[in-house]
Amino acid sequence: MERSDQELIAAVLGGNQEAFAEIVARYRRTIYSVVHHMAYDPHEANDLFQEAFIRIYQSLDRYESRSKFSTWAVRIATNLCIDRRRRRRDELVAAEDFPDIPDRSENPEEQFINAERTARLRQAIKKLPDKYRIPVILFHQEGLAYEEMAEVLRWPMSMIKNRLYRARLMLRDTLIADGKGESL
Amino acid sequence: MTKCRTYRQMLMQRMDKELSAGDEQRLSAHLHICPDCQALAEQLDDLSGGLRTDFSPEPPEDAEAKIMVAIRGLPPYGHKAKTFGISLNAMGLWSLAGFVVMTLIGISVSGLIGPAFPADLGRWVDSLATAANGIQLFMEIVGALFGNLLDALSRQLMFLILAGAASILILAVRSMAGTMQTWTDPPLG
């Protein structure tokens, strides 16, 4: 029977480090998604991925169960990425350095179109300033609700909504400019 | 234009799946008569479809193993913040207690109401030596009560340092008090 997050946390806090492996397995995709979209290159993404989980482990005794564990973990990963980005002045976009994501559709033509669209969208997201990119990632990729985003980012809800709306319009403009009138 | 702004806001709410049925109908009616908003609606629908695609790659295969190697290098919970088998909190309390005890011993042996420093430096040194011996004896007992020889030694060292600090503090206070007395004493005669 699968143990709940609370049980795993209690086990880790009781001195069982191996229970943390299950937490890592459970949230690795979520955390990697956050760091992947906020890192400059795959090497940094891997670095941030590891550091995020170390921070989660080190802060585990400060986790309060009134918020969802995933929300709390995403907040730690997001803050880590924001800190790292603040330290780095270089804003060069290196989206093309990331490996292509294998497409799951079966039609080769569809595969090509989807892959191209995904690549363009990914690059467009990478070009967004942090304050617009982060809400896009959390809402559209991680599926966080506005309330959860407010908790993660400690921004007012109205600000999150405005930034997300603005980000969508920016993405649309970028994709139109890049595609020179092609379909998004 | 103001009207269009309202409908564009609704388009965003539709993307968030927060649009009421009534607003959905109003928006739909507006899109039939406004080509600009209709174009935006189509673009946002396309974007929405693209954003639903999960384009995050899988983390590297060895990432989890690397994380666990790093985690195993950290102190496990339950054993965190322990030194020489006693917790830092307990050590802090012992230090505080030791400091208070040593300060009291220092005050008594230095004779706050006894000989004035530095006139009787010899007696001060003797008193401090006596105090140090007393501290050692005290620590032997503490060490015997609370663990192995290493613990005892570490505590002795810690308390001796504290005792030294306390004695220096007392000497400094005495010296200052003496100076202040010199300043405030009325002139003789």
Account of the 3D structure:
The complex is a heterodimer of chains A (184) and B (189). Helix content of chain A is 70%, strand content 0%. Chain A has eight helices and no strands. The radius of gyration of chain A is 18 Å and the shape is globular. The relative contact order of chain A is 0.10. By secondary structure, chain B is mainly alpha-helical. Chain B is 74% helix and 2% strand. Chain B has a two-stranded antiparallel sheet. In chain B, helix 1 crosses helix 2, helix 1 (2-15) runs parallel beside helix 3 and helix 5 packs across helix 7. Chain B is elongated, with a radius of gyration of 38 Å. The relative contact order of chain B is 0.07. Residues 179-189 of chain B have low confidence and may be disordered.
Structural class of chain A: mainly alpha
> Based on DSSP secondary structure assignment, what is the total number of beta strands of chain B?
2
Distance between the termini of chain A: 44 Å
| Binned strand content of chain A | under 5%
Task: Tell me, rounded to a whole number, the average pLDDT of chain A.
Answer: 83
Number of helices of chain A: 8
Radius of gyration of chain B: 38 Å
The residue fraction in helices of chain A comes out at over 70%
Please describe the biggest sheet of chain B, giving its number of strands, its sense, and whether it closes into a barrel.
2 strands, antiparallel
The pair of chains with the biggest contact is: A-B, 48 and 33 residues
The structural class of chain B is mainly alpha
How would a crystallographer describe the biggest sheet of chain A? none
Give the C-alpha Rg of chain A. Answer: 18 Å
User: Mean pLDDT of chain B, nearest integer?
Assistant: 73
N-to-C SSE series of chain A?
HHHHHHHH
The number of helical elements of chain B comes to 7
Order of helices and strands of chain B: HHHHEEHHH
